Amino acid sequence: MIDFTEHDYIQAYARSVEALSQSPGDKDFQHQAVLSLARMGSLELALLEYERYGLDKVRNHEDIMALGGRLSKDLYLRALRHGDDVNAKQYAQNAAHQYEAAFQDTKGYYSGINAATMAFLADMPKEIVLGRVQAILNILPPTEKLSPQDHYFIEATRAECFILNGNIDKATESLKSAITFDPLNYTAHAATVKQFRMILRKRGEPDDWLSPFSPPRAIHYAGHIDLCLSKAESDSLCISVSDHIQKFDIGFGYGALAAGSDIIIAEALIQEGAELHVILPCATDLFIEHSVMPF
Prior knowledge:
By secondary structure, this protein is mainly alpha-helical.
């Protein structure tokens, strides 16, 4: 299986394709390749590959069956962004049916809760939505003796059920429990908060109570190379950069290490406890020759 723990979806896709060169018909590798494309935002290619691999014909495999619902949900969100309400509703209905088919085949709570949420977003009758919510609540296992990640997903699912039921107090309690047991799983937190905001905005309810549960922000940084600053000016700039990192709750920074602004920002990110991800635009020796040594 492909390791997604680092959440580098481009590399995950590359590894999936490499694995498929050795095992061309492996449905799990096909699933992971398509999922990586979807996660990195390459929706059109993900849809083409999903159809080419014949993943829509797979049964009794929750992850693969739910992938069709995931792609339809992405189409729904894209249509909403473009103001295309008619097609958005159709995509939401498609996603609801695909997730429900996965749930009926596998009884997995991931596909079940998404079937309920997409039914709500597709304006399906309230009794259908609440019936699906109750079906999920009936099968959610207790969280004792579970791994932190499993605990997180079960409590986050429970919280989503409560939001769909209109019980924000219980949703808040369950979400707090989820994050307490898996506090650094920022990718999962972001996906959960995004889903909850989607429901609340559809209902026209405030979503500001979700802000404390949102993960730290990520930035891409770049700036001038030859700054020509005095010692005092350089010190002042470093303080200003650190202040901005704290003010906007920056937890992740992506950029290069060119002389000047890049290095100042990178050092400030490390000093403030953020994760620094260095990405050079060319070979290291060439980068040093042109973007570091002359300055």
